[in-house]
Automatic annotation (TrEMBL):
Keyword vocabulary terms for this entry: Cytoplasm, Cytoskeleton, Metal-binding, Phosphoprotein, Repeat, Zinc, Zinc-finger
GO biological process: cytoskeleton organization; filopodium assembly
Primary location group: cytoplasm
Entry GO terms, CC: cytoplasm; cytoskeleton
Signal peptide (UniProt feature, chain positions): none
Domain spans labelled PH: 222-314
Keyword Hydrolase: no
Protein name in the entry: FGD2 protein
């Protein structure tokens, strides 16, 4: 049987994404990491130079490797019972604003590579050494660095094609059209949205610390406050160390992980801000305590000082 056209395009998206993630891995985990190591040893160029050359490639790599690629893979495995990618791309689109920084920095990065290659022979040698490896496929660092610059236009083309080939009654039509519109906007605004980009980068970093729990990753969330807190257990009159993340729509009540592999916290409880009440408790035994009650649960929490308590309540 002939595969439907839209599935072929979705598979092409997945395959190019896999290739793209290995290119990002090469840039971040090999070039950047090794050049940084030598810079730290004071053998090649100042650390700042390496940081400037690679801009925010690490965030871009983490985002694609840990989030977008796995989401796409999951989708293509379920294609027979759930033939859609529009919703996943809508989740991805806002984070593509991270590219604004990388794209804006690209010309400067290439100039820096040229300048320091002339000025520091060990720097040039290290780059040449990495370029000789099989993983580089006989291409230069500059060539590999161009790949993220070309990635968003590539999404746009693939998605345009996908929307064109979708049958009119496809369940993915609305989502896919909306996703295309979003990607189009990102491509158009990649230079304007600096503040927004920083917010999204910070938000992404928070999601990583929380272990990327799927229903939490939402680009429209805003982190309002985070910090350690003591949880009071009335049963045995004791407190235990917890950690809070307050977003505009939810409070995440977390436990710091002892062994920090990957995520830093485990989300124990999620309380909606909608319908939440907060008030100070005048408890003589536990000073600076306040009560948070929401639809899901009520918590008695102790801050480290009155200022901290008031800041949380506010």
């Amino acid at each position: 049987i002939q595969e439907p056209e839209e599935k072929k395009i979705a598979l092409e998206l997945l395959e190019t994404e896999q290739a793209y993630v290995s290119r990002l891995h090469l840039l971040d985990q090999i070039f950047y990491t090794e050049l940084m190591k030598e810079a730290k040893n004071g053998k090649t160029v100042p650390e700042e130079v390496v940081k400037t050359i690679f801009s925010n490639i690490s965030s871009i790599y983490q985002f694609h490797a840990k989030f977008f690629l796995p989401e796409l893979q999951k989708r293509m495995e379920d294609w027979s019972c759930n033939p859609r990618i529009g919703d996943v791309i809508q989740k991805l689109a806002p984070f593509l604003k991270m590219y604004g920084e990388y794209v804006k920095n690209f010309d400067k990065a290439v100039e820096l590579i040229t300048f320091w290659s002339e000025k520091s022979p060990p720097f040039q040698e290290l780059i040449a050494d990495i370029q000789k490896r099989k993983v580089c496929a006989n291409l230069t660092l500059q060539h590999h660095m161009l790949e993220p610059v070309q990635r968003i236009p590539r999404y746009e083309l693939l998605l345009k094609d996908y929307v064109r080939k979708l049958p009119p009654e496809s369940p993915d039509r609305d989502d896919a059209e909306k996703a295309l519109e979003m990607i189009f906007m990102v491509a158009k605004h990649s230079n304007a949205a600096i503040a927004e980009m920083e917010r999204l980068q910070n938000l992404w970093a928070v999601y990583q610390r929380l272990g990327l729990e799927d229903d939490i990753v939402d680009p429209s969330n805003e982190l309002i406050k985070e910090g350690p807190i003591q949880k009071i257990s009335t049963r045995n009159n004791s407190t235990s160390e917890k950690y809070l993340f307050l977003f505009n729509n939810m409070l995440l009540y977390c436990v710091p992980k002892v062994i920090q592999v990957g995520a830093e916290f485990q989300v124990h409880l999620r309380i909606d801000v909608d319908g939440m009440k907060v008030r100070e408790l005048n408890d003589t035994q536990f000073p600076h305590t306040f009560l948070v009650s929401g639809k899901q649960r009520t918590l008695e929490l102790q801050a480290r000082s009155d200022e901290e308590m008031n800041a949380w309540i506010k």
